[in-house]
Amino acid sequence: MTNEHSSARPGRRYRLTRRGRLVLVVSTATVAAAAVLLPFLLREDETERPRPAPKSLVIPEGWRAGQIYAAVDKALKRKPGTAQTAVRAARLNLPPEARGNPEGYLFPATYPVDENSTPAKLLSFMVNTANQRFGANAVAASARRDGLSPYEAVNIASIVQAEADTEPDMGKVARVIRNRLARGMPLQMDSTLNYALERSTLDTTTEETRLDTPYNTYARNGLPPTPIGNPGEEALRAAVAPPKGDWLYFVTVAPGDTRFTGDYDEHRRNVEEFNERRAEERSMG
Fold it and tell me: What percent of the chain has pLDDT over 70?
């Protein structure tokens, strides 16, 4: 809100779908061979023995690196902090601007987990997936056409992911960000402050907008120093190709009711309505 105050066995491979689901692709030759050999290779008791369900790790869109580290540790039954410590040893394929920080490049998807999985392998899988999705020629070209580096595009996408709930709103939020950057205006995004404070809330106080942190986009112009989460493809597409519009402000007055405007007075009225609604919700407990 803006406010003015594994190694795979032969014949099979895993593929991530557009929505981040994991599918198993098996070659037709392998299927044919398996169909002929299966009755001879398996004893009767083995055909009836239930197989354990494959394990997987689901990373939702918008999760921060800290949340992902904790999820990796839990999935692999490691001590808390193991995945975060593994970042340095993983030799992740990150852009130079990231300075070794994978925030923004731990791609949201479903990842296979087995006895050979390690924190470093999982994190590297996520970063490599992000590079494949974010490094597509069309995405990179769109970013550079507008004077953005791919890292800046991911940074914008992370804010878009945190601020918008629907694909149309993602495009408009991205346009607000681009318009404000073009005019030299501070972004004034609550989501960047939430990142600095390691929280997620709809309420930001005037005092908090004065905090001394590079993620305080109320007090500092430009983008935060790093992405503030790990965006999905929809958010990235919005960041590099937002719709045209003069919007400079937005506020989500109610679920499903995000209002965008280029008029400050109109925005103040929308914010007032938002504040009234939040006060009513708090009074009702």
Answer: 80
Alpha carbons within 13 angstroms on the beta-carbon side of residue 78 total 19
Residue 141: the pLDDT is 75
First to last CA, the chain: 23
Does the pLDDT value for residue 272 go beyond 90?
A: yes
Q: C-alpha angle with apex 132: 130 to 135, nearest 5 degrees?
A: 90
Q: What is the pLDDT of residues 232-253, one digit of tens each?
A: 999 999 999 999 999 999 999 9
Residue type, 235: A
- Cβ-Cβ contacts under 8 Å for 171 (sequence gap 6 or more): 238, 242, 243
Identify which of 136, 1, 130 has the alpha carbon closest to the alpha carbon of residue 63.
130
Tens digits of per-residue pLDDT, 92-113? 999 999 999 999 999 999 999 9
Q: How distant is the alpha carbon of residue 173 from its chain centre?
A: 15
Three-point CA angle 197, 189, 233, nearest 5°: 95
C-alpha 174/C-alpha 166 separation (Å) is 12
CA distance 71 to 69: 5
Categorize the per-residue pLDDT at 143 as very low, low, confident or very high, splitting at 50, 70 and 90. confident
Residue 230 one-letter amino acid: N
Can you give the pTM of this predicted structure? 0.80
Distances in whole angstroms, Cα of residue 212 to Cα of each of 42, 163, 192, 197, 217:
66, 22, 13, 11, 10
Q: What span, in angstroms and rounded, lies between the C-alpha atoms of 202 and 191?
A: 9
DSSP string, 206-239: TTGGG--STT-TTTS-S--SS-SS---HHHHHHH
